[in-house]
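Entry: 3'-5' exoribonuclease 1
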Amino acid sequence: GRQHCRISDQETNGKNSTASSNDFSDPIYKEIAITNGYINRMTRDELRIKLAEFKLETRGVKDVLKKRLKNYYKKQKLMQKEPINGDNYYDYICVVDFEATCEEGNPPEFIHEIIEFPIVLLNTHTLEIEDTFQQYVKPEINPKLSNFCISLTGITQDIVDKADTFPQVLQNVIEWMRQRELGTKYSYSMLTDGSWDMSKFLNIQCRISRIKYPSFAKKWINIRKSYGNFYKVCTN
């Protein structure tokens, strides 16, 4: 029969969960995503019945009803979420913001290459910046920067011509992290403004350089998404 949105912990945490084991987001957002899937499969009448149970407005087209029910469920789950124990915080946050080759309009066939690898090391206990790492990277597929890229990033042709290629810079990053005992003595997480830095730019760069995707970058905090979830705002 048709799957119904019962909005219960039993349903969202049960064996039928479709959340991927590779999804590193907070479990509560997995629950929300799974229930959103049930809501999407509900008929207009089913949506109205469920909204009535929660004493919510039942008028509107189907898409409006779905959005209303999703927003209600998300708000309820976030309110139930227990505060994070301070002892469970990461010791350090590594804030990353790559610069990459680009052209005006970024045509679909253009291949982006990382040309700057910067990290800011934030101590979560003191909220102080303890250290930084910053190196430029020499692009290989499109070694000549476009005028648009130079203007946008402030990185000149002379700078990248003198820089190391990406495999060497990545090794320098790993050594820098090792010296600061990240992942051994201290817990840490990478943090980016959006998902593109890790899921697109770093992923593409590792394929270009024919090297393995680094383990430290398989899990990161998307501050754009965290901000939007906390303040209930759109962060496209």
